[in-house]
Amino acid sequence: MNWFVLAALAGLASNGFNITNRTALKNQGDSTAYAWWFELVRTSFFLVILLFQPNPTFTISMIVPLLLVGLAELFSVYIFMKMHAYTNLSISSVISRLRVSGHP
Asked: What whole-number distance in Å separates Cα of residue 19 and Cα of residue 16?
């Protein structure tokens, strides 16, 4: 596949993700519970993949940064779901695009 097809598929998947989140959270959806379920499903998926890796090695110098990144991810997903719960999809889509750009 060329880069254009991958970029188009990534854009469609991202838009589908945002629409799904906003639909689930509008009309008083519980953004905290939704964020926890989202993280639980994603963590479970990657733990299953980890189980099938040959000879995984774990060290403290590897686990501590991964735990810190996981906590930061949990916080960001919580804020992300709060954003979808309290804004219109047109506004939250623009905000989510601006956070990825990396421009000051």
From this structure: 5
Rounded distance between C-alpha atoms, residue 76 and residue 2, angstroms = 31
What's the CA gap between 96 and 92, in Å, rounded? 6
Residue 78 covered by a domain: yes
**How many domains does the chain contain in total?**
1
Cα–Cα distance for residue pair 99/68, rounded to 1 Å: 20
Tell whether 102 is covered by a domain.
no
Cα-only R_g, the chain: 16
Strand residue runs (E) in the chain: none
The domain in which residue 67 lies consists of 12-96
User: What does the pLDDT look like over 26-72, one tens digit per residue?
Assistant: 777 787 887 888 888 888 888 888 888 888 777 888 889 888 988 88
Stated pTM of the model: 0.59
d(CA 30, CA 47): 26
